[in-house]
Write a structure and sequence with these properties.
This protein has about 525 residues and is of the alpha/beta class. Among the domains are: about 90 residues, Urease, subunit C, domain 1 (Roll), CATH 2.30.40.10; about 120 residues, Diaminopimelate Epimerase, Chain A, domain 1 (Roll). It is built from 16 helices and 24 strands. The strands form 4 sheets. It has an 8-stranded parallel beta sheet with strand order 8-15-16-17-18-19-20-21. A 6-stranded mixed beta sheet has the order 3-2-7-22-23-24, with helices on one face. A 6-stranded mixed beta sheet has the order 9-10-11-12-14-13. Strand 2 and strand 3 form a beta hairpin. The chain starts with a strand and ends with a strand.
Length: about 525
């Protein structure tokens, strides 16, 4: 591989003691030198990237992404930003018209909180446009589905069907299913839906990877990776077509299979590596299934645990004993407490393996410092703060003070690893950084920032998208522009450090993405 010289750049290295450089040399896919314009020499035959004075940052890592889900969502009915159930149904009707008889209609992204009446929809809404083709539409949170009667018939879900543990079937006044299936009950339908083929999975993954490149993302921590997705990733990597670093956190639903296959955290190569196993402690805010100490506002409901804490402990312990690191989804304050208690109890089991909580969405003040004390990484998604703040105010009230508590976590010694939860929200790290730095949405509200005390500095947000995720998976050769690190970087259209208004971070775009010294994306060709 020919050497690469990056020059005429304003390079933010992510290295505390030497944060800025003007040039860097890449050899065999890694940085070997960097510094001032006159400090870096390169062979005459070296390829040259002239950054034109633009800002260069380490390649972004999305520490919580559903890669196959992102590609699949790009190919299904997009229900984001719908304003009413009628608007959503219109989009479904357009897809039904293009779906052959017997085919399933899939979609994602709807959120009743964005609709005027904020009521969950009914299967009859879908039956009007899809009487014969099964339709499965996943909520933006990923924690409930809206299905039609044809899908319920295909799964043999009736008024007599009992929900599985950790799930719920919404019913109308007659006891009939409304078409809303929550958490574990979603599988009643998804398990009978036709699985995508291997070529379809690979195509969806490649779509998602190209999308990641356009946003400067060079690594993802893929969450809840199942057998089919893992096989597709292996196939891409074996064919040298995997052009994104993936740290796979495997689905706990196949825990025994991973153990029988002797998969372990760290297995793999520089492109594809096992990160651990992804568990779920509770549901989500949007589906009102996050497990809380006190009821949701104007409600008697506290959400629920997806399994008894002692069962979760048993599963996590078994994975630790087989060298698989746990990453546990916890949204509600009670769920977070339960997971922290679990990690504290298991501190002596495989102590060298990292632990992390995914989302850590709302905490009690007494639990905030436990992340740092226990060495538990907070894998959080800043874009959720500005997208969900109205839901938090409405559902959790004053408890929202410790929702998305990035600064409090940081100051207590916690490691922050930022991600997006794509396709739930945009993968764009610049949008996530804007949310973390301003606590304001794209419209600029609220003007002073929502719970502004939890804002963090721009450099801190950048580290949480670069070195933070690398530390969370114990990879010291990533997330920085420094000798020995992977030559992954992004060239930005705007210098976000010098903007007079942090709202303008949203104006910035990625002009170029480089992975291992190879250009994988260039805006406008």
């Amino acid at each position: 591989m020919t050497d690469l010289l990056l020059r005429n750049a304003r390079i933010w290295t992510g290295v505390e003691e030497a944060s800025w450089a003007e040039a860097a040399l890449v050899r065999d896919g890694r940085f070997v030198d960097g510094g001032g314009a006159g400090d870096v020499s390169a062979p005459a035959e070296a390829r040259v990237i002239d950054a034109g004075g633009r800002l260069v940052v380490p390649g972004f890592t999305d520490a919580h992404a559903h890669l196959l889900g992102t590609g699949a969502a790009m190919r299904s009915v997009n229900l984001k930003s719908t304003t009413s159930v009628e608007d959503a149904v219109r989009r479904v009707a357009e897809r039904v018209a293009r779906t052959p008889p017997g085919g399933w209609v899939r979609g994602a992204g709807w959120d009743q909180n964005d609709w005027t009446d904020r009521r969950f929809p009914h299967r009859r809404n879908l039956d009007a446009v899809a009487p014969d083709r099964p339709a499965v539409l996943v909520h933006t949170s990923g924690h409930c589905s809206w299905v039609n009667s044809a899908a319920l018939r295909a799964a043999n879900v009736t008024a007599e069907t009992e929900p599985p543990p950790g799930g719920a079937i919404d019913r109308d006044g007659d006891g009939e299913p409304t078409g809303i299936l929550r958490d574990a009950a979603m599988r009643l339908v998804s398990d009978v839906a036709p699985n995508p083929t291997q070529p379809e999975r690979i195509a969806a993954l490649e779509d998602a990877i190209a999308h990641a490149h356009s946003l400067g993302v060079t690594c993802v921590h893929g969450m809840d990776v199942g057998r089919g997705e893992l096989q597709a990733l292996y196939a891409l990597n074996d064919a040298r077509r995997l052009r994104l670093r993936v740290r796979a956190f495997l689905s706990a639903s196949r825990r025994d299979e991973w153990i029988e296959r002797n998969l372990a955290t760290g297995d793999g190569d520089a492109m594809l590596r096992i990160g651990g196993v992804k568990f779920f402690a509770d549901g989500a805010l949007g589906s009102l299934t996050a497990w809380m100490f006190e009821p949701y506002e104007a409600s008697s409901d506290t959400g629920f645990a997806l399994q008894p804490p002692e069962e979760l402990e048993r599963q996590v312990r078994r994975c630790l004993e087989h060298n698989l690191a746990p990453a546990v989804h916890a949204i509600g304050d009670r769920a977070n407490r339960a997971v922290l208690d679990l990690f504290e109890k298991l501190r002596g089991v495989a102590p060298d393996l990292p632990r992390r909580i995914e989302h850590a969405q709302v905490l009690t003040p007494t639990d905030v410092p436990r992340f740092g004390a226990l060495g538990v990484a907070a894998s959080v998604q800043p874009i959720h703060a500005t997208q969900d703040m109205a839901k938090v105010d409405r559902s959790w009230g004053a408890r929202g003070r410790y929702a998305y508590a990035f600064r409090s976590l940081l100051e207590s010694g916690a490691l922050l690893a930022f991600g997006s939860d794509t396709p739930v929200e945009t993968m764009d790290p610049l949008a996530g950084m804007h949310a973390a730095v301003t606590r304001r949405n794209a419209a600029g509200t609220p003007e002073g920032g929502w719970y502004a005390d939890e804002r963090i500095a721009l450099k801190t947000a950048l580290r949480a998208y670069t070195a933070g995720p690398a530390r969370a998976v114990r990879e010291g050769d990533a997330g920085r522009i420094a000798a020995g690190c992977h030559a992954d970087f992004a060239v930005l259209s705007h210098d976000v450090f010098t903007l007079d208004d942090r709202m303008r971070i949203l104006d910035a775009r990625v002009d170029m993405t480089v992975l291992g010294g190879e250009v994988v994306y260039q805006r406008n060709g």
